[in-house]
Amino acid sequence: MTTEQNEQAQDLQQEQAESQTAQTQAETEQTDVSVEDLQAQIGKLEESLKLEKARTANAVYEAQKSVERIQRESDKHKDTVLEKFAKELLDSVDNLERAIQAAGEEETPVLEGVKLTLKSLLTTLEKFGVVEADTQNGFNADLHQAVGIDPNAKANEIGTVLQKGYTLNGRLLRPAMVMVGA
């Protein structure tokens, strides 16, 4: 009986050894196949990563362009609003200048107050880029509007300024209405 048991134990060990050998061979074959599969997967993942990086770069580029476009539109809108506001204030400047002219030579506290108000308003306008158009260096069709001929002025020279002109950050806000020599 012991011999039979020993034989059975040996048979069992042989079967287990054969099974382990077969399993090791299968794992080796599976490992070879797995390495190839893994390399293929790595290649696919690298391609996918390149595609996603390109998509991300494109999205970042589009976002930057959108921000720049919105900024340009905002600046343009701000300039338009500032231009409209400044044009409306120019009427007040004109009225204050007319009040000073109408007062004549007599210095009164009211006239002094009007002059100070005009000076304050012009200073505020200058802070925001509104400046008086130059009328000292001859007629310039880009800055001046000729509304008549001044017989006392030289040709192409400004004789009389009927209404001052103004520019906003270098752009014409309102042309100066002038009389020009012939």
From TrEMBL:
Low complexity bias locations: 1-28
UniProt GO molecular function: adenyl-nucleotide exchange factor activity; protein homodimerization activity; protein-folding chaperone binding; unfolded protein binding
Ranges where the record places region Disordered: 1-35
Domain of life per record: Bacteria
Major location category of this protein: cytoplasm
Annotated Gene Ontology cellular component terms: cytosol
Cleavable signal peptide: none
InterPro entries to which the protein is assigned, alphabetical: GrpE, GrpE_CC, GrpE_head
Protein role: Participates actively in the response to hyperosmotic and heat shock by preventing the aggregation of stress-denatured proteins, in association with DnaK and GrpE. It is the nucleotide exchange factor for DnaK and may function as a thermosensor. Unfolded proteins bind initially to DnaJ; upon interaction with the DnaJ-bound protein, DnaK hydrolyzes its bound ATP, resulting in the formation of a stable complex. GrpE releases ADP from DnaK; ATP binding to DnaK triggers the release of the substrate protein, thus completing the reaction cycle.
Subunit structure: Homodimer.
Name of the protein this chain belongs to: Protein GrpE
Species: Acinetobacter tibetensis
